[in-house]
Prior knowledge:
This protein is 50% helix and 8% strand. It contains eleven helices and five strands. The chain has helices at residues 3-13, 35-52, 59-73, 109-112, 115-130, 133-145, 161-167, 182-198, 205-214, 230-239, 241-250, and strands spanning 19-21, 28-30, 83-87, 94-97, 101-105.
Amino acid sequence: MNAARLFVVCALLSLGCACITNPETGKRSFNVVPEATELQLGIDAYSEVKTSTRESSNSRQRAIVQRVADRITAQTGVAYQWEVRLVESNEANAFCLPGGKIVVYTGILPVLESEAGLAFVMGHEVGHAIARHGGQRMSQTMIVQAGLQVADLSMGDSTQKPMIMGALGAGAQYGVLLPFSRGHESEADYMGMRYMARAGYDPHEAPKVWERMGRGSTQPPEWTSTHPSHENRAADLRDAMAEAMRFYEAAPKKYGLGEDL
């Protein structure tokens, strides 16, 4: 490693105090990307998504997605400029960009089955954004690459765009989707179930979503994957169900499973 790269690595590591705190869980994590930078990257990435995708013409589904988004985001306590877009695609996908730009693909709706299923997945994706998992992944990438500087992060740089979109969870169109760690995924699951319960959706649907995701899919052994297995994710959510039910029971309005998708 040359002296310049060594300097960058040491500078990043010296920022060990540059930790952020998850407002939902209290967990502290390393992140050297300023929140303002993440927010701008999220806005730029959302513009990219809007120009490269087609919004669904199904007005009923769009209305459901909007109301679920309104109910979930109201429980976060985070004052983002929230937006949600239902994209016409066979892909079973959803993500939330920094700053609260939520994208849901129509291909995931049959798996989710109901508003409650959608509320869990949307809460999960919102959890990634609020926990700033994208910034954490970019921080890790900068350390590994030992030379990529925070000030140089830009969607306008064609060499960086795939990495940025992948880190933010929206990189499928570039063939790049940097995987969240098992810890990030588990944290987002936990946050998503809390959000849906507080919003008045039955949290018992959360582990069922992962059970349905697992039907017919072939996953690599968990120890070879960055993601927990569907079975383990469902089991972890059941372990946290008592807490989620306390939130659900305290919710001023209860929607149960809500409307079918």
